[in-house]
From TrEMBL:
Alphabetized PROSITE patterns for the sequence: HTH_CROC1
Designated name of the protein: HTH cro/C1-type domain-containing protein
Gene3D superfamilies tied to this protein: lambda repressor-like DNA-binding domains
Domain HTH cro/C1-type: 31-85
Protein species of origin: Ciceribacter naphthalenivorans
Amino acid sequence: MPRLKREPPVEAVDISVLDSLSFQERLAIGLERLKAQRKLTNRDLAEQLGVHEAYISQVTRALRDVKLSTLDKMQREWDVVIEDLLKITEADLPRVAVWKARRKKQKSAETDQ
């Protein structure tokens, strides 16, 4: 039986942290929620929008800005309101906690080099 990769324990996130999220972070979390709800991958999202998978990967990790034309395409292709992708609710707190833990891990790895 293959060993499962264990994720480090995730710290609870206080709802007040939501105010400090950037536009890119909010969109990344909203896209993660959309992917989970619709059981989609980054490849699926990229194909639907006609963009490269690497681009969507960077957007879903809040590493890249999104063009307005891409936001418009998201709205039309996925039948969503952009405001809903940017809205972060208490239900998203576990997703925010995982996302913040990943970012913290990446930053500590960068400083160790």
